[in-house]
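Wait, mind explaining this?

_____
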Amino acid sequence: MKKIVIITLMLVASMFLLGIKINGSSVSLSSVLSDNIPPFVTVTGSSEEWVKNATASVFCIDLGIITDCDTSSFMLKTSPANFSCPENFSEYDLTNPQEISSHVWVCGAAKDKAGNIGFSPIAIEFRVDQEPPTISNLVAFPESPVNFSENQTYQFNATSTDNILVDSVVLEFDNVNYTDLVKEGDTYSRSFDNLAPKIYTFRWFSKDIAGNWGTTDSQTYTVESVGNETNETETPPQPETQPPQSSEGGASIGFSQSFSLVTPSNISIEQGDYAILTIVVRNNGPSYANITVITENLPDSWVQINPPSKVVDASSFEEFLINVSIPREEAVGERSFSIIAKDGVEARRPVNLMITEEETVSPVSQIPVAENVTATNLTQTNVSQPPSPVGAFILTDPSFIGGMIALIFISVLLYLYYYRKEDFMQLKNFFKTTSPKINKAEIEVIDSGETVKYTVTYED
C-alpha cells in the first residue's frame, strides 16, 4: 500500500513539473479545471480514393471539464493547394458542413462555450473530381464506306485522357459493349474480322477513377456489298421535335428520348453464389427522363436492382447496381437474359450467364498447405480508413494520462476527507511517521589520559 501511494505521488509531481501537453502546449491542471485551453479541431469527410463528391465537416473535442464545443461556431476554409491552417478565426469564411465538388484542401475552426478557439493542425485533402474524361481522335480503318471483302480486318481507335486518371474505356459497337481493348499510351483500339455488309453504329465511353463518364456521339460505319446494296441496322429512337409535355408545370417528361446502356456481355456465377453488376445508363435526349431498369428472362427472385428507377438529366450518366443470385439447386449451364433501361422507349443489352458448379471445400486435413512461403512473398494492401477516433492521439498522450491519474488521486483524497475522515487521518499520519527520527549522542573516550568527545548520529 505504501509503495502504491508513493508511486502515485511521484506521478502527480512529475505531471506538475513537466505539465500536461495538449496541442503542443504545456498546461497546468488548474488551466484544465478552469477551461482556458482551446478545443481540439479537425475536418472529417475526406477519402483516400478519388470521388465525385464529398462533404467536409468540422470535428471538435473540448478538452475542458466544465464546457463543451459550440457547434454554432464551426467554420471551414478551403484552398486549391495545400496550405497552413490560419490561426485567425475571421479567415474561415465557409459555414459547416460544406459540399465539396473539386480537389481542395480544407481547414476547420471552432470555439468552445468558454470562448476558447481551436484550429485544425493541418489541412485535410479532399480528392474530389467532377470532370469527365475526354475522348478524341476517332479513327476507323479502313475508312467508311468500304466494300465488303472476305477475311478483312476492321480496326477502331480512340484516344481518352483525363485530368486525374482514366479507369476504363468501353466501345459500344453494333449494340454490344466491348472492354477487351488494346491500350497503347492513351489510345484504345478494337478489331473485328469479316464484318457483314450493313451500316454499323458505334460509340465510345470512358470512365475516370472518380466515376465520371465521358462519351462520344453515335457514329456510323458502312460496309457495302459488291452491288452497293447495304443492309441498314435499326437506328435507335431519336428525340421528337416536340417532346410530350407533363401536366405538372409543363416540363418535358422525355418519354420519347433514347438511351445508351453500358453492361457486361458475359458473366459467370457459381451455384449458390451471386454477382453484382454495375451498369451505366446515358440519357441521350434533350430533357430529363425517369429511367427504370429491369431484367428479362431471369426469375424475379434472382434479381435485386438498386435503385429500380432514377431520374437522369439530359446528356447525363447514372449507375445502377444489379445483384444476380443463383440458387444452389439451379442446374449448371448457360443461359441468356437482357438488361433493359426504359422510359417509354427502351435500350436493351443481351448478357450471357454461365452457371458453374459450386466448389466444395475438402476437409481441413486434405487442404494443401503452401510451402516455402516467406515474408518476401507477401504483400500488404493499404485499406482506406475512416478518420481517427475522437481525440485518439490525445487520449494516448502520456502527459494527458498523467493528468487523468492526478485528477483521480485528488478525487480519492477529497472523498476520504469528506466521507472517510478516519482513513484520511490514517493516510496523513502515514506520511508523518514514515520518515525516520534522527538522534544524536555524545560519547567521551579517555585515551592516554586525555578525554576525547565523539558525536554519534543514529536513527530510531
